[in-house]
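Chain A, query sequence.
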Amino acid sequence: MMINPRLELLSELEQTPEEYIPELLRLVRLFRQNQKDIAVGSISSRMILNQVLEEMEDAEDIADAKIALQEDGFINLVDVKKELGIV
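Chain A, predicted structure.
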């Protein structure tokens, strides 16, 4: 039995951690906008793929940074600068 892609997408969304939802929403909107641009010939599918991949990498970096900020022993940049006498 073939699963309806829309239902499959909704199922994936339900399993997505809340902190990823804003970035995922941004990616969906970017994808939709790029599809319009392809239709009028102002952008290539390769350019879209590169842009979406870059957005995904940025979202992953942001998520990793947020996790690192919560880890024990994390020293923020302001404290590092103070300790080094850079401020």
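DSSP finds four helices and no strands in the chain. The mean pLDDT is 82.
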